[in-house]
């Protein structure tokens, strides 16, 4: 049992606030991904959970135990560092065995675990090498193997696949997901790659400027962003936004189109994902600017009401730059945000 | 007739003069260091007749008589032993005190850190002759005079700034993340230091210890003032060789210089590291 509870945790570096009052609960054996742009505080939060950084305020609980006063070794965690931190004076084998030796496990057990995790990370042929003789991606895999070999209650990973090529990354991602699902580990996984986040997570915590904006399942985060930021950060291409003005009760004028919407509020923003637009007789008047055929779909960047507006359209459709289109939003996929707070409305 | 080789325009004038100046300076500096050492070696390895004779051949005679006589000279063996004893004590003390200070400087933020770094270097600004008399008085009062430990304490003061700076640079060269990784893998602070940091800095620590040894080995002023019976080799030589024949002076000089040269040569890259020029 290793539920992680973070209560009101903040971190200040001098006058700079890296984390603002974070509240987050991660269930036992859950795979939680922290997703956010560079510098939003992901590593800082991870380091606070690991015990490498002291929070300026708040509490951290792991498995029903308050741990914020405990050193890292007493928290039942293992961590994969963003810069690998592979020990240069030890072989790959001894690196992976390091934590096991600290636990004083018998040699046979050490051998078995090192070989098993090395095989998993496809580094079994590198066990005799030193870190100076490895590529960045290989070092990264050693770091992951070293953490996995510990078989900890909680594993904290800071961008553990960032240095692998696309193919290997895809493969490792699948393997990691399999391994961690079979073990009874609670995982916190930091990334700024949203595809990775989507594919791995039970839940995604989207962070922005030291705050958690939304913590929900990948589909929920994608379909129902809790804030404008989430919609604009997740999805490739991201959500489209247009200002909306109230024309009547529950009716909003969006770029010349009347759209039914929330009853309350007076300054809202209309939002729609590019793939939820179709070409129809009725819809936003759009002028195509850039047309990018992507095989399965065609990405059209158009202008609607003087704003940039993207649509993912069927590739059968013949569109060329300069064409006038009518883009119709799927009614059930329309989302509304408060223009002042940026939070979801309606 | 076509000439396929392209003429590279030669930079004469300013560039040439600059280059000449640089090379001239290099040659001058090398000569400044090497010529005395060379003369010392030649004369130490020549017979007494060759040393005082004229004209000089400029080549060593490979006569070991002077060195042999010097080695058998009454008191040399004891002075050599004292020198080694004091130098080893100095080495142990300056690393024992300097390395923790270097670690603290590189790993912890504390108020007055920069001032402390400056002060460490500033200790070298006090002229030893000025301190020697009060020190001698104090040592006599505490019974530290004429002991190896007393002299080693003074030498430690001289060696510590270097020990602190070299070890500071060594520890700074080791990413904190390596220690942190060890902490998350079940180590406490001390175990992480022992298992991760120490193996990585050990060669550098050894070098910095050798440097402390050399400082003590070469130090003559404090040694001459603070010891009477238990003289170290340099103090002994100053006292005795003044009144010795020329060839013995050369032999004594060589006995002093060669070990120091070898030591410094062995640890040279760490001395550069001290100034942040190169980190291994
Ligand atoms: N020791 C520190 N002192 C001062 N500021 C710091 C310190 N550590 C981190 N910060 C700041 O805190 C913010 C969050 O840093 P953090 O490393 O958590 O970002 P991140 O989300 O992990 O980014 P990335 O994706 O680039 O790794 C950054 O603006 C960073 O400059
Ligand atoms: Mg980071």
Structure description:
Chain A: Its main location: membrane. Chain A: It is a peripheral membrane protein. Chain A: Belongs to the ABC transporter superfamily. Chain A: Keywords: ATP-binding, Nucleotide-binding, Transport. Chain A: This is ABC transporter ATP-binding protein. The complex is a heterodimer of chains A (346) and B (280). In chain A, 24% of the residues lie in helices and 38% in strands. Chain A contains 8 helices and 20 strands. A 6-stranded mixed beta sheet of chain A has the order 6-7-8-3-9-10, sandwiched between helices. A 6-stranded antiparallel beta sheet of chain A has the order 13-12-11-14-19-20. Chain A has a 4-stranded antiparallel beta sheet with strand order 2-1-4-5, covered by helices on one side. In chain A, β16 and β17 form a beta hairpin. In chain A, α3 crosses α4. The mean pLDDT of chain A is 92. Chain B folds into 2 domains: 41 residues; 212 residues, MetI-like (MetI-like fold, Orthogonal Bundle), CATH 1.10.3720. By secondary structure, chain B is mainly alpha-helical. The N terminus and C terminus of chain B are likely disordered. In chain B, α1 packs across α12. Chains A and B meet through β6 and α2 of A and α8 and α9 of B. Bound molecules: adenosine-5'-triphosphate and magnesium ion. The site of magnesium ion (MG) has 4 residues of chain A, from α1. Adenosine-5'-triphosphate binds next to β2 and α1 of chain A.
Total count of domains of chain B: 2
Global shape of chain B:
globular
Order of helices and strands of chain B: HHHHHHHHHHHHH
Q: How much strand of chain B?
A: under 5%
Structural class determined from secondary elements of chain A = alpha+beta
**CATH architectural label of the largest domain in chain A:** 3-Layer(aba) Sandwich
Largest sheet of chain A: 6 strands, mixed
What gyration radius of chain B follows from the Cα positions, in whole Å? 24 Å
Which percent band covers the strand fraction of chain A? 35-45%
Our count of domains of chain A comes out at 2
Q: Mind telling me the C-alpha Rg of chain A?
A: 24 Å
């Amino acid at each position: 049992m290793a539920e992680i509870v973070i209560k009101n945790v903040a971190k200040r570096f001098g006058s700079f606030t890296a984390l603002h009052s974070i509240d987050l609960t991660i269930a036992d054996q859950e795979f939680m991904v922290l997703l956010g742009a560079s510098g939003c505080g992901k590593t800082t939060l991870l380091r606070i959970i690991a015990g490498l950084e002291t929070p300026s305020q708040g509490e951290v609980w792991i498995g029903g135990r308050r741990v914020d006063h405990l050193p890292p070794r007493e928290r039942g965690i293992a961590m994969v560092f963003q810069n690998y931190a592979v020990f240069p004076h030890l072989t790959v084998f001894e690196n992976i065995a390091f934590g096991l030796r600290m636990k004083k496990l018998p040699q046979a057990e050490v051998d078995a675990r090192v070989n098993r995790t090395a095989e998993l990370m496809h580094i079994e042929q590198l066990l005799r090498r030193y870190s100076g003789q490895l590529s960045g991606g290989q070092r990264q895999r050693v770091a992951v193997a070293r953490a996995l070999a510990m078989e900890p209650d909680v594993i904290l990973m800071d961008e553990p696949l960032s240095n692998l090529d696309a193919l290997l990354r895809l493969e490792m991602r699948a393997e990691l997901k399999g391994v961690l699902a079979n073990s009874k580990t609670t995982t916190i996984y930091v990334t700024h790659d949203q595809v990775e986040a989507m594919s791995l997570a039970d839940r995604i915590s989207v962070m922005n400027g030291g705050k958690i904006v939304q913590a929900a399942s990948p589909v929920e985060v994608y379909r129902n962003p809790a804030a404008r930021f989430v919609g604009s950060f997740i999805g490739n291409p991201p959500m489209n936004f247009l200002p909306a003005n109230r024309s009547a009760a529950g009716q909003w004028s969006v770029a010349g189109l009347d759209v039914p919407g929330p009853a309350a509020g007076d300054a809202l923003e209309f939002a729609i994902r590019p793939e939820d637009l179709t070409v129809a007789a009725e819809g936003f008047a759009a002028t195509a600017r850039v047309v990018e055929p992507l095989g399965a779909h065609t990405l059209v960047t158009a202008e609607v009401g003087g704003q940039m507006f993207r649509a993912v359209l069927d590739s059968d459709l013949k569109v060329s730059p300069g064409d006038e289109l009518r883009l119709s939003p799927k009614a059930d996929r329309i989302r509304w945000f408060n223009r002042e707070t940026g939070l979801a409305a309606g | 007739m076509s000439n396929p080789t392209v003429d590279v325009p030669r930079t004469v004038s300013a560039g040439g003069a600059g280059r000449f100046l640089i090379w001239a300076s290099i040659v001058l500096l090398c000569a400044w260091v090497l010529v005395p050492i060379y003369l010392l070696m030649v004369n130490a390895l020549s017979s007494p007749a060759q040393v005082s004779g004229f004209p000089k051949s400029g080549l060593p005679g490979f006569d070991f008589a002077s060195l042999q006589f010097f080695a058998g000279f009454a008191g040399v063996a004891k002075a050599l032993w004292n020198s080694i004893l004091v130098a080893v004590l100095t080495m142990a003390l300056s690393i024992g005190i300097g390395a923790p200070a270097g670690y603290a400087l590189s790993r912890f933020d504390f108020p007055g850190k920069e001032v402390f770094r400056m002060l460490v270097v500033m200790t070298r600004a006090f002229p030893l002759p000025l301190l020697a008399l009060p020190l001698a008085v104090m040592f006599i009062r505490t019974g530290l005079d004429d002991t190896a430990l007393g002299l080693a304490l003074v030498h430690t003061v001289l060696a510590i700034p270097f020990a602190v700076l070299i070890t500071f640079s060594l520890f700074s060269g080791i990413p904190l993340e390596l220690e942190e990784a060890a902490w998350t893998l079940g180590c406490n602070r001390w175990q992480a230091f022992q298992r991760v940091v120490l193996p990585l800095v050990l060669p550098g620590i050894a070098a910095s210890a050798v440097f402390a040894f050399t400082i003590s080995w070469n130090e003559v002023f404090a040694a001459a003032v603070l010891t009477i019976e238990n003289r170290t080799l340099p103090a002994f030589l100053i006292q005795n060789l003044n009144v010795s024949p020329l060839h013995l002076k050369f032999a004594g000089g060589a006995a002093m210089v060669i070990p120091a040269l070898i030591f410094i040569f062995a640890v040279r890259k760490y001395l550069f590291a001290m100034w942040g020029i190169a980190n291994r």
